[in-house]
Amino acid sequence: MGxxxxxxxxxxxxxxxxxxxxxxxxxxxxGIYMLDPWERTVFNTCLILLLSMSFYTAYAFLPQHIFxxxxxxxxxxx
Amino acid sequence: xxxxxxxxxFKRPAKLxxxxxxxxxxxxxxxxxxxxxxxxxxINYGVITLFGFLRDFLRKHGFEKNHASAEADDMDGFxxxxxxFENFYTRNIYNRLHDVFNRPICSAPGPVIKIMEREFLQSGxxxxxxxxxLDGIVNLGSYNYLGFAENSGVCADASIKAIQKYGNGVCSxxxxxxxxxxxxxxxxxxxxxxxxxxxxxxxxxxxxxSMNIPCLVGKGCLILxxxxxxxxxxxxxxxxxxxxxxxxxxxxxxxxxxxxxxIVNGQPRGYRPWRKILIIVEGxxxxxxxxxxxxxxxxxxxxxxAYVFLDxxxxxxxxxxTGRGVTEYFGIHPKEVDVMMGTFTKSFGAAGxxxxxxxSLVEHLRAKSHSACYATSMAPPVCRQILSSLEVxxxxxxxxxxxxxxxxxxxxxxxxxxxxxxxxxxxxxxxVVPALIYSPCKVGAFSREMLSRGFxxxxxxxxxxxxxxxxxxxxxxxxxxxxxxQDALDAISSIGDILQIKYxx
Lengths: 78, 505
Fold this sequence. Notes:
The structure holds two protein chains of two kinds.
Chain A: H1 15-30, H2 37-72
Chain B: E1 5-7, E2 10-12, H1 35-60, H2 85-94, E3 112-121, E4 126-139, H3 154-166, H4 181-194, E5 198-202, H5 205-216, E6 222-226, H6 231-240, E7 243-247, H7 252-265, E8 277-282, H8 294-304, E9 307-311, H9 326-330, E10 339-343, E11 353-357, H10 359-368, H11 370-374, H12 380-395, H13 397-420, E12 432-436, H14 440-452, E13 455-456, E14 458-460, E15 471-475, H15 482-499
Parallel strand pairs in B: 4-13, 6-7, 6-8, 8-9, 9-10
Antiparallel strand pairs in B: 1-2, 3-4, 5-11, 10-11, 12-15, 14-15
Helix pairs in contact in B: 1-2, 3-12, 4-12, 5-6, 7-8, 12-13, 13-15, 14-15
């Protein structure tokens, strides 16, 4: 839960502080600020897995899909 | 004065000129929720609920120790007691913000309080006191509107003398041996203060509402109650057995429509006319900070021949030039409201409630009310505290100073918050200032950050408010100095930047 989250004195100006503040806003927006540290790890791991799988799929298959779509609509010669 | 007019053979009397009343500038803003904040709030609740299911699963199958209440092993075939949604909410959502609610205080709830520090173990299931006491926390949450919650001064000395004379307990109900002379003195003084015929007091404010509404209405009567009425009024309406219709908050057109429908249709089966129609409204609504549009309600009451029950729990002592409540604020004579109810907990710094009105109403309640017959009457030091604070408010310069200070504090704080860019609900003159922070995570972070900067605030979340509209509710007090309020505004501004809750910008 959010008990072990660092309390901010004021909006941080240094680079490291700014990145910490961005992570804090990410936790607040998704709602994991209220969870225990291990639950946060579980959520972050699942999210990173999901995102990396999506990116890999896009990287591997998107060009083929775009080629097929364009040639189907006749905008490009096969 | 407009001249008498003749129309269709009827002579209508001349209309009296309307005095300059606050109704001219009566505008309350209830800004709708920004869409992205609603979505983020639902995402928050969704994620927390998902993890709640995960934790329940782990607890049920023994991977994690179950701290919640559960049936004993030998109660296998019995209907389960612990499976409602409310428990799910308490276990998985409320407990995670446990350090923000129920903070124990160890001093008088004045402008500055002492809070006992707690350390939470096991994700909110239990805590222990670290032994440290946080001193000098500015109190922005108590209903201490005129600053009478003090442990020294005129009122406290008078209470001590009362204990020396009467002792602390009354040991009887009002109908038996518990009717003391200071009760009669208090009722007479309260009736004179409110400018009505008579008044009756009870020991508990909640019980005043819930035990006396059944005395006034019964089966065959209709109650029109506002959407956001307090739990005590809702309980009283349910206990009475009358039919209850709810109209939209402070919406006079809706009230008129429902009144007309009720009178035209009559009782549900049989279409008989209603025995009595009672409109129940509050002076100041504590969750929204809005003030009831009383002149319109009284206009409707006269037109449709209904009765009005006005609950002035938060407005007595806090509104009006001499603190006589919402009737003085609008310039209406109190005799126009049929039943005026109020509590002594907020502005008078004591406990208990009263109902005031015509002599026949008050005598009826004295004889028939459950609270008068069965409940123990008000304790003598509490009664004496109310008498001395009433004396201060109505008859001394100090009282006038406090009322003016409350009004100026309210104005300054509300304008300050609005300038910073927060969404603030309600009327500009009400002493309750709710600022909206829609998401539960932000609400928890806000309260913790404020405590670390030395300010104690009250945050309210789901069951008391709609699910998307969690808020922080500031209660302004006459005991807070300008410096306190300015420091509070600075702290709120810096937290607002960190948490990004300045939604108007």
